[in-house]
Amino acid sequence: MASNKAPPGPGRLRGRGRGDGPHGVRGGKSGRAAADSRQKERTDRNDLQRQRLLDKYADIEPDGLILCMYGSHADAVFADGKVRFCLLTPKVHKLFGLCVGDRVYTKRGATDDERIVVARDLRRTELRRKRGEEDRTGHVIAANVDQLAITASLREPPLRTGAIDRYLLLASVLNLEPIIVLTKMDMCPAEDPGWEVLIPYSELEIPLLPTSAVTGEGIEELLESLEGKVTAFAGHSGVGKSALCQALGLDGAMEVGDLSRSSGRVRGRHTTSVARLLPLPGSGFVVDTPGVRAIGLVDVKRHDVGVHFPEFAEYAAKCQFADCLHAEEEGCAVWAAASEEDISPERFDSYLRLIESIDD
User: In the CATH scheme, what is the code of domain 126-288?
Assistant: First the structure.
């Protein structure tokens, strides 16, 4: 005799656990609220532990500066100028996290030349980049940076003003001083007409430093601009960051890589696999960051981007609407100024691409 009972569906086979919703879906609104509450408790507990730990060192200066991270250990330089091997305690990993440029508190390890990081000082700035499209917070690659040295070459690989504009936006958001370092001048002399694409940046009074790691052109001037500061070198692979670091006489500068010409495009091969803090011959440091082809921006909303284009300010005040995005809205004075070339059309096109790439 056939049974009138329906065969068990997927929900019946799984069974309902505690907290499952009416359709066998675990959680629901109450489950999410409980998870959020537990996460907040963990965050509050970690914040309290972190503050208690820092209170112990309130009247003490950090004794170490992180030069390079290797997972559970790091190289750090100390007041006597010596670089020492440092271990990271699980608590430091949990409560702080470390990157190059961090100022840390340490204690003696197994030997005089081994230290254990017990806490990290608060950061003035954080330089972050996305590791993928789904990354919403970004990966911190350097801390306590003063200025961003945007490296670019006119040829080999070709200059991309869009990348420069993204780095300038990043510098403005993080309140870093930007400089544009032009590399490989031995391949593209100053009279090369291709440099005209950089005129808008000189009009914005952003320092432009032409250099050549081959001939030594501009290296002394570059050293002067880096003196006494922590500077992050940023730019696409192959533009010459590692070659510049070697020309500047930085100990530990990475090898210079070859250029790849696969698929008819010129790109650099990655030679810098981790961010490193390299001491300058005088005073100051350079952060040599891994080359990136896709520059991710974090903590930036579309409506905030225009604020970081200083040439927009005069015209943005005349826009018909206070929340104008400057993207074809009616009565947009910025759009009108770009149409009349009172604002660089190239910079304005770059702005439009930037806001298009940012997902609010």
Answer: 3.40.50.300
